[in-house]
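To close the section, here is one more complete example, presented without commentary so you can practise reading it yourself. The ligand is zinc ion.
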Amino acid sequence: MKKVLIVVFCVALTIALICGLQKSDPDNGLQEKNIKKSQPEKSKMEKVIKTEEEWKILLTDTEYKVTREKATERPFTGELYYNDETGVYSCKCCGAELFRSENKFDAGCGWPSFWDAIDKYKIIEKKDYSYGMIRTEVLCAKCDAHLGHVFDDGPNPTGIRYCINSVSLSFKKDSTK
Ligand SMILES: [Zn+2]
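Output:
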């Protein structure tokens, strides 16, 4: 009886080994690689979140008041108002590229004005009821910095005017080729 059991056990073991060998698939590694490749790219828009104290260290008093407390700089005082060089305007707080010099125009209002943004997803528009007016506030989508306001009295082709505090922006001149 014991012999029979041993034989049955050996046969079962042999079958199990054969099945195991058949299952091994040389393409398994390749399939894993392909799955990794086809995964979607991680979103480039990662929020920049800092405490008030951290922003105070990074920004000047005026920059902090305008970008984090929604103050407005005095008109015709911003250093970028008269800037007509070719380049890109970024968020003073997080460096997100927001506007291009090609879209800047002189609206005569005293603040840098743009008729379009580099990418509308980089900007958040929010209704603003302060000072008894109904306006649309413009914020940086990445770090929520207050940039200015947007109006619908801009030039063609968009008809909109982003009226932006100079102090909310950093300017980087295009490198000459
Ligand atoms: Zn920002």
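Once you have examined the tokens, check your reading against these statements. Residues 91, 93-94, 96, 140, 142-143, 145 surround zinc ion (CB under 6 Å). The two ends are 91 Å apart (CA to CA).
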